[in-house]
Amino acid sequence: MSERPQTIIQVEKGGQGCLITLLYFIFVGWWLSALWISLAWILIALIITMPIGLKMINSVPKIATLREPSRELTIVTEGLSTRIVETSAEQYPFIVRAIYFIFIGIWFSGVWLGVAWLASVSLVGLPLAIWMYNRVPAVTTLKKY
Fold this sequence. Notes:
alpha+beta, three-stranded antiparallel sheet, 6 helices, 3 strands
């Protein structure tokens, strides 16, 4: 029996328009993201609350710019039925991600976020800052999307 090919679709969540995003960032996003990042790093430093801090770090793009993360869907056809399944990238083994986080990720992501925030304060650097915010989970823990 031959297996049918699967179709993979990249879904971008609908968000606010460019003007609303820009106004939000100018009046709220730049200072709220600085507070959010600071609180996240305090929670990470406390070890026990590290999962909450990492979750907060992963949500920095939304806090700074209201950007929803995209997701990948796969259309799977089995016989006469078709279903849509949300897929995610295969992650590195936990031990590799943990060692990376302890020796590199924790300090490198702090520097990364500091540079991203400084870039975001100037409107010229905003595109670079948004790109950097979107890569924070990968820089911190090697998370793949």
